[in-house]
Amino acid sequence: NAGVTQTPKFQVLKTGQSMTLQCAQDMNHEYMSWYRQDPGMGLRLIHYSVGAGITDQGEVPNGYNVSRSTTEDFPLRLLSAAPSQTSVYFCASRTTGGTDTQYFGPGTRLTVL
Amino acid sequence: QQQVKQSPQSLIVQKGGISIINCAYENTAFDYFPWYQQFPGKGPALLIAIRPDVSEKKEGRFTISFNKSAKQFSLHIMDSQPGDSATYFCAARYSGAGSYQLTFGKGTKLSVIP
Questions:
Q1: Which of B105, B110, B113, B112 is nearest to B23 (CA)?
Q2: pLDDT band at A2 (very low <50, low <70, confident <90, very high)
Q3: pLDDT higher than 70, residue B61
Q4: How close A16 gets to chain B, by Cα (Å)?
Q5: Do B42 and A107 touch (CB under 8 A)?
Q6: Which end of chain B is more exposed for a tag (fewer CB within 10 A), N or C?
Q7: What is the mean pLDDT of residues A90-112?
């Protein structure tokens, strides 16, 4: 199993550009989520999905879009990048319920100039 | 509001010493409390976790102490080693409405010096 994979690892954008951060998992997990990590702010939930076709907003959803057409993939779209979106982005997945482990991807470091 | 407050922000411990990181929460509906460990340039990984019906859980050198009445839990790292140097996040899970959301503390950067 590859676990949770994210592409790209690094990305530099100019203000106003759009892009999609890719996330895929091969563990057949229902629950997938996106976090951003900023110094001193911990991990903040952007969007999450409890299954294909179902998404919902987290703590900091503004400026981001998601969709979940398959169990495996959960892309995060930046519609019009802003410097405030400079961050490290982590995708995560797990099964729902019980005490199941949440698995994180290796992260995408995004810089918006 | 679902909040988890973590302290200290940073911690320096001598090799062989005990590292203690504390977290406090407000929402009594939280039902699962994991700790994640993150090395530089990597994603967080589950270290140890506890449910609120247990007061302590130990795995090797890592122990979670849980105080339900005080709404506090802590991570103790015994015999701390330089390889334990990482950022540690406490978290709490809310399972209401099928969301299973994890709320994270802001993290503690642990440095273990030889």
A1: B105
A2: confident
A3: yes
A4: 27
A5: yes
A6: N
A7: 88
Asked whether A47 and A55 are in contact (CB, 8 A), the reply is yes
Rounded to whole angstroms, what are the CA distances from B20 to A43, A76, B57, B69?
21, 36, 14, 20
Alpha-carbon torsion (A61, A67, A71, A76), positive or negative: negative
Encode chain A in three state secondary structure: CCCEEEECCEEEECCCCCEEEEEEECCCCCEEEEEEEECCCEEEEEEEEEECCEEEECCCCCCEEECCCCCCECCEEECCCCHHHCEEEEEEEECCCCCCCCEECCCEEEEEC
Write the CB contacts of B92 (distance below 8 Å, at least 6 apart in sequence).
B2, B4, B23, B25, B27, B30, B32, B33, B102, B103
Residue B2 has pLDDT above 60, yes or no: no
| Closest Cβ opposite residue B106 in set A41, A92, A104 | A41
Closest CA to A37 of A90, A94, A76: A90
Q: Residue B99 and residue A56: Cβ atoms within 8 Å?
A: yes
CA nearest to A44 within chain B: B104
> What is the token pair recorded at A44?
């903040």
pLDDT at A1: 74
